[in-house]
Amino acid sequence: MTPTPRLLAVSTAVPPYALGQAEVRDSAHRLFSGRDTEIERLLTAFDNAGIETRYSCVPLA
After folding, report:
1. What are the Cα distances from residue 41, in Å, to 6, 16, 20, 35?
2. 37 in a structural domain
3. Which one of 8, 10, 34, 57 is at 20 to 30 Å from 42 when CA atoms are compared?
4. DSSP label at residue 61
C-alpha cells in the first residue's frame, strides 16, 4: 500500500516586481498590436478586472 500524500505546510509569497494595471495593459497592447487579434476588445478585460496592482517575478521590460 502506498502512503497517501499530505500537505505539510502552506505559505504565500509576493513576487518582487509590483506592476500597475495601466502599465500591464499598455504593455499587452504594445505586445499584441499588429497581430491578427482583436486586441482592443480584449483589453477591456484589464479595465474591468478590478485589479490595481499585479506582481511579477521578472520586470515588465
Report:
1. 43, 30, 20, 13
2. yes
3. 57
4. -
Residue 25: all three cell numbers together: 495593459
What is the per-residue pLDDT for 33? 83
Euclidean distance between CA atoms 7 and 27, whole angstroms:
37
**What is the widest separation between alpha-carbon atoms in the chain?**
57
Tell me: pLDDT of 52 over 90: yes
For the chain, give the mean pLDDT: 90
Structurally, the chain folds into a number of domains equal to: 1
- Which three cell numbers mark 10? 502552506
Per-residue pLDDT, 53: 95
Residue span of the structural domain in which 48 resides: 17-56
Interval 16-36: pLDDT, tens: 999 999 999 999 998 888 876
Angstrom distance (rounded) from CA 47 to CA 54 = 13
